[in-house]
Design brief:
By secondary structure, this protein is mostly helical. About 60% of the residues lie in helices and about 0% in strands. It is built from 13 helices and two strands.
Length: about 280
């Protein structure tokens, strides 16, 4: 069910993109003003366009919340040329979109019923930065509430496909590409890693920023996804609650080295540096 929901989510995204393309084809630049054309304001405007409304002022006046501050821009963006063909295609795509959302809602209800026996594990996992309820459902569906089939976190990471490869020949490492694994679990972990990367006061956020500066965003995301899976493994195995190491973990880990580095930097800029530790 979680796999089918993921596929429906991908189809839903493609349908939204097609609706956006039809609007652009009619010279309606709603996406250039509204951040999300599928928000409450965008949905109301699109439905009105499908029903035959052509007045840009009336369409712009349907804006809600902060978008009402952009009504003049909306009026210009909604001055297009909508033909009957555009309305037919938008009507067709809108029905498809509503059908997909209804199916996803039905799946969500069924998945929630199936995961009720595992509420303690879900409450345990959502404490990890980046992990939301939907990610816990994927973890429970793919890995299970018991991680005993995996002797170690390294074997679980290898099975999921979130660990670097180790292809060597004649003592030279040829590539470090990740190996094929469970793509459904890997997809959920990367989504969780992306959410965790935005947390300013967590270990995972600090890990992402540290690696992204040196190795790039994609590799940093995969490394954070690997860390999340290792955390999940030990939480499910031990039954303990999550305790964050803190965003300053790496600074504390290499405190002396950082002290020498920044002291030399300041001295190189012409300053005389005297260090005095603060009182405990």
């Amino acid at each position: 069910m979680t796999r089918h929901r993921a596929q429906l989510g991908e189809e839903h995204t493609r349908t939204v993109n097609r609706i956006h393309k039809r609007l652009e084809d009619a010279n309606l630049k709603l996406g250039s003003v509204a951040t999300d054309i599928m928000g409450a304001s965008g949905r109301a405007m699109i439905q009105a366009i499908i029903e035959g409304e052509e007045d840009a002022r009336k369409l712009a006046d349907m804006a809600q919340g902060p978008l009402r501050g952009k009504i003049p821009e909306l009026e210009k963006a909604l001055e297009g040329h909508v033909t009957e063909h555009h309305r037919f295609m938008l009507r067709l795509l809108w029905k498809q979109l509503i059908s997909q959302e209804e199916l996803m809602a039905e799946l969500n209800t069924r998945i929630e019923e199936a995961t009720r026996p595992f509420v303690p594990q879900q409450e345990q996992l959502v404490e990890v930065p980046g992990i939301q309820r939907r990610v816990t459902e994927v973890i429970l569906a793919e890995v299970g509430a018991e991680v005993t089939p995996f002797p170690s976190d390294a074997q679980l990471a290898s099975w999921a496909g979130v660990c670097p490869g180790n292809e060597e020949s004649a003592g030279k490492r040829r590539t470090g590409r990740i190996r094929p694994g469970n793509r459904w679990l890997r997809q959920a972990l990367v989504q969780a890693a992306w959410a965790a990367s935005r947390s300013p006061n967590s270990y995972l956020g600090a890990q992402y920023r540290r690696l992204a500066a040196r190795r790039g965003r994609k590799r940093a995301l995969m490394a954070v996804a690997h860390s999340i899976l290792v955390i999940v493994y030990h939480l499910l195995k031990s039954g303990r609650r999550y305790a964050d190491l803190g965003s300053d973990f790496f600074d504390r880990l290499h405190a002396k080295r950082l002290t020498r580095y920044y002291t030399k930097r300041l001295e190189g800029l012409g300053y005389s540096v005297t260090l005095e530790p603060n009182a405990a």
